[in-house]
Amino acid sequence: MKRRNTILIIDDNKLNRATIADILRDSYQILEAEDGKQAFRVLAKERDRIALVLLDIVMPVMDGFAFLKEYKKWEEYRYIPVVVTTLNDNQDNERRCLELGAWDFVPKSDHPEVMRMRVRNAIDKSKVRLLEIDPLTEIYGQQKFFQMTREMLDRAGEDEQFAFVHFDIERFKVINATQGPQEGNRLICRMAECIREGIEGYGKGTYGRINGDVFAMCLPYQELGEVRSLIKQISRSIKEHTAHYYLETCAGIYPIEDTTMDISLILDHSAIAAGQCKGNYMVNMAVYTKELKERLLVEQRIINEMDAALEQEQFIVYFQPKYELQQMSPYGAEALVRWKRPDGTLVSPGDFIPVFEKNGFIIKLDYYVWERVCRFIRSELDAGRDPAPISVNVSRVNLYNPRFLESIINLVEKYKISPKYLHLELTESAFSDNAVIMQKAVQYLHGAGFTILMDDFGSGYSSLNVLKDVDLDVLKIDMKFFSKGGTEEKGAKIIEAVIKMAESLDMTVIAEGVEEKHQVDFLSELGCDYIQGYYFAKPMPLLDYCRLIGAVGDE
Question: Quick one: 259 and 390 in the same domain?
């Protein structure tokens, strides 16, 4: 943040401006304006530099009173103090200026040293106030809230319990964009008002605005249900203000176990709890639990180890064969990744894949898998065999990687293999994220000769739109549609319809998750092209796959 070391002098009398400037120039830079309107033009350009405004009352165009009235309307100027300087220092003028928001009233006849001291005091007060009070909501800002919370926890008795609450609005940026920033600011002010009223009614606790739409509260409690009830009350009050559009609040509760813990760390814990509500409109309040803590510790260990694991090649590529249904023989496979630590323990893909998708490491892991598949294909070609294609997964994160298309094409060129041997599997959810990006990517990859598969077809809500808009080659349907129980007959009809539709669109169908013979018989009758699942083979190391297909393998 720029240091505010500039004073704006607003006075229509050039000599008065020069006199005041000479008094203050040793300590401050000086800007000048002849009237209120000109002053606002200066403020618009230089507000980050300006520490204080010295304002005359009697001026043409816009006088001091009119300036103060307009000045009050601008949130961004709230903590730039205005000190009135005038030769006409009667009490009525002083009272009126103070009512309009002036911070002080200084007669021009004051001794220069007195004027310097009063200017310095006003600036110092504004700095303290800026640190303590949030300028938009007029409740405590983060620094003062942290201080008050620390003092409350330090005074607490051994038997007292406290809960820290991270509170915000679900998808506030969308509301701000659709309703406008002015309404966004009104909503934030309403949140502050509801929180203040709620805690005043609760009778105890601290609260403050952290940033944006994020607020925090620290509350003593006997039963955690008391805190939940207060949050529900605050949420209801906020919604009453916003009846013309829909919103949901989000609260993360951290029951404080160690009152000596740093407040910023306590805030982090409550934010983690609040993260469990994001994107889930059925849940708008979550508590930080031991289970959540253990999951986070597992995630952190994964993050700590991921770079070394990649460097040491702890990630192993497994192959799950695909079977051509008519011949009942293996034809190609899907490459899957497993993580085997040096001590022999296995990390479940369900544990590490979501973490890598969140932190972007999946881009490196995807490439690692692709390259090992390309090596295997190259070894098969060098042995004089024509291998069946291997499909690799492309994470949705990679689709936003600007080097994705270049890297996959460079890879097949590096190993001198045709793209027909390397099929690319994209999940349906990736298409729903950004259909335009996906459409362009698929067109580009098709132009380069790649075959594109849509994995998990039917798992989302945009399947048919994707088929209409994007030129895909293969649909993979999961046998979860064929679930047991009362819905099995409906599931069978859906699978039948998908296979017929794919046939009419000249698309290949792969059924995955096939585990039982009656499923194989059913798919065979429908004319499904390929089957993948435990009925035929589980994912296996490369050497086992090579033995299955009669290849040698060099890894």
Answer: no
Same domain, 50 and 23: yes
pLDDT at residue 555, as a whole number: 45
Question: Does residue 157 share a domain with residue 112?
Answer: no
- For residue 96, the enclosing domain spans 6-132
Nearest to 64 by CA among 24, 16, 114, 25: 16
* 553 located within any domain: no
Count of structural domains, the chain? 3
Taking residues 378-394, what's their average pLDDT?
A: 95
Where in 145-187 does DSSP place strands (E)? 161-169
- The C-alpha atoms of residue 268 and residue 126 are separated, in whole angstroms, by 30
Indicate which CATH number applies to the domain containing 10.
3.40.50.2300
Long-range contacts of 202-207 (CB under 8 A, 24+ apart): 202/226, 202/230, 205/152, 206/140, 206/145, 206/148, 206/149, 206/152, 207/139, 207/140, 207/145
For 505-511, the CB contacts below 8 A with 24+ separation are: 505/467, 507/472, 507/473, 507/474, 507/475, 508/473, 508/474, 508/475, 509/474, 509/475, 509/476, 509/477, 510/322, 510/453, 510/474, 510/475, 510/476, 510/477, 511/476, 511/477, 511/478, 511/479
- Please check whether residues 194 and 282 belong to one and the same domain: yes
Same domain, 231 and 327: no
Contact 507, 516 (CB under 8 A): no
Looking at residue 131, what is its pLDDT?
A: 58
505-519: pLDDT as tens digits: 899 999 999 999 988
* 167 and 115 in a common domain: no
Name residues whose C-beta falls within 8 Å of residue 282's C-beta, 6 or more positions apart in sequence: none
Q: 185 versus 49: which is more confidently predicted?
A: 185
Q: What DSSP letter does each residue of 98-127 carry, written as one string?
A: HHTT-SEEEETTS-HHHHHHHHHHHHHHHH
Identify the pLDDT of residue 2: 45
Answer with the one of 97, 114, 132 that is the final residue of a domain: 132
